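dumping the sequnces here before i forget
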Amino acid sequence: MLAGIFSAVIGAFRRSIQLRYVALTVAFSAVALVAVGGFLSYSIGNGLFHTRVEQILQESKRATLDVQNTFNSSGATDVVSLQVLVNAVVPNLEQNVASGSRRVALLRTPNQATDQFLQSPISSTLVDSDIPIAMRAKVAKTENRLVYRTVTLNVSGNMEPSVIVGSKITIPIAGQYELYLVYDISDAQATLDFMQSTLAFGGLIMILLLGIVAYFVTGRIVGPVARAAQVAEELALGALDKRLPERGQDIVATLARSFNQMAQSLETQIGELSKLSKMQQRFVSDVSHELRTPLTTIKLAAEMLEARSGELDEKAQRSLDTLISQVARFESLLSDLLEISRYDAGAVVAELEPNDLNTVVKLAAAGLEPLAESLGCALDVRVPKGEVIADLDRRRIERVLRNLISNAIEHGSGKPIVIEVGQSKSAVAVTITDFGVGMSRNQMDRVFDRFWRADPARKRTTGGTGLGLAISLEDTHLHHGWLQVTSELGQGTTFRVTLPRKNGGIFTESPLPLGETLSQRKIV
Amino acid sequence: MVQKVLVVEDEELLNRQLCDMLETAGYEAVGSLDGVNAMLAFKSFNPDLVLLDIQLPPTSGIEVCKQIRAISGVPVIMLTAKTDDEDVVAGLEAGADDYIFKPMPSFKVLQARIEARLRPKPVPEVNELVIGPLVIDVLGHEVRRDGVRVPLTPLEFNLLQTLAEAPKQVFKREDLLKKVWGYHYDADTRLVNVHVQRLRSKIEDDPDNPKIVVTERGVGYKAGQF
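..and the predicted 3d for all of it:
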């Protein structure tokens, strides 16, 4: 529970720069206020106390002098009149005071040679033991000077901060006495307390206000930054027309202006690029369309000639064969170009329907059987029992497989081609393996590039366009599937198509292995 | 009797080549280079079949097809260099019976398509079929609804007749392509879909809620049960 709150607070701190700065401001100002408040409170308290003590000492001095003078000038010689004088001292001094109240004790200095015969008067709420012994000793030894102490006295249950001022009084006949005046300074303490609590309260209000000020000030600064961050994020997500409001001449406005300039140039450049790319796609598409009509004418003309090939001599016949085969190649090049341009334009939509992959694979293989036969290689199709149903655009997947199988036949050096179908809960896969020339690492990396050929000088049997694998890759991606290759020079090549079983389904592993070395597979 | 084919194609050389080959194959062929001339030639030549290019100046092949359909049910095969889906569908919706891309695999394929459209249906076993409110006069190649003739193209008629002849059978789209269009290999099933829509718009009370030509989900079509 506590840990949860703690981590929530930490999380809030991590996320909000504003919260961090408000907290920092509050913390620093609290430290500063405690320091200033402490100093103020100390020096004010000191001042208050000294003033009070000064006043007390003045009063005490006067009082002591009065008392001493009274005894000196009385001329009283008998005990009774002395006792009367002594008794009058306390009530006199108790009342005759400028500020607050004072209590009085007139105590005989102990250990004198003479006997004590006067009673020591003392204020009703004061007892002998309230005067510290150490003080009494000091007073006894001090001549013509006042001795004072600050103490806390228990007055009928209340602890009262008090100042005791002591001095020596000589009473004729009776001997050495000590006059103690006890002043209650709780009024000064109360003033100090009040001041301190006012200071503390004021400090708290101050910290709160500082926090609020910090909140608004950081808000003014963080706000535009947060807005900029949000707009930048939207921009990154593709909303290229997002801009920041530009107000004023300050640093924030400069940020907004620079940001907007950046966004503007980004938008312009991306716009231009996509326009160029659209133009290019459009161009490719237009060109292939425009070429179709003359191509049709040439093709039909060649077909017409072919129907009369009996009337041609050998050389003319060979020219006609060349014409026909090159027109066919031209045509497949055109249709591949058009297909790629449609992919580039994003104009391709898959028609996904449940299909039996086994059937598609068998059909594709059967279609290439004549080519395989002419090159003397066998097609070894291994499919699982029953049906392997998956959401496929059948036409495209058949095209992918035809393309991969004809590639395998072409590069298979006449050795058997293994075509295998696999399935798992979430995915279906086909591997096409040949044991022919294979590819180097570099060749493998470029095998899906457009118009790339492993060996430009190699004799071309199937008249491929150089776009086949690029289109196959697009077809596979259209299904959200994988098209992967592994190859070893001189050992052969395996292509693997992995497709999700359900449209939009997710798979993490292909049902068929790809990494298995080709030499191992050969033995199987 | 020699069958007549009107070739509407703006590329002069291709037009002539097609006409030459059609004539060599035993048809009577007339070429027309634009949409306006095409309609004039259609009326004077009275062809048995029209080969129609989609991209035509000044009126497009789709427009020409609509004009032909307004006055005749003669089979129309679209010839198109455009392979985008919407162009094909637009052509079929305008009333074309079939389409073939440029360049066609070979003239023989084109010829086979033409043959399939011109081939007379084998002599039927029954003279009349009834399906719901429709009476199909097989011999007279007519469909009547409450005694009123419903104008159908020969292809639409064949489609309806095929369904009506086996009222309990569900036809896969591929089966219909084979039986009605004469395709013997995997072809575009959109041909079937578009023509079923067109047929429904002519014979159904509520084409959105068809009773006569019923869709069997995931399989194909069959005749409605009444």
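Chain A has three domains: 19-193, 277-344, 353-523.
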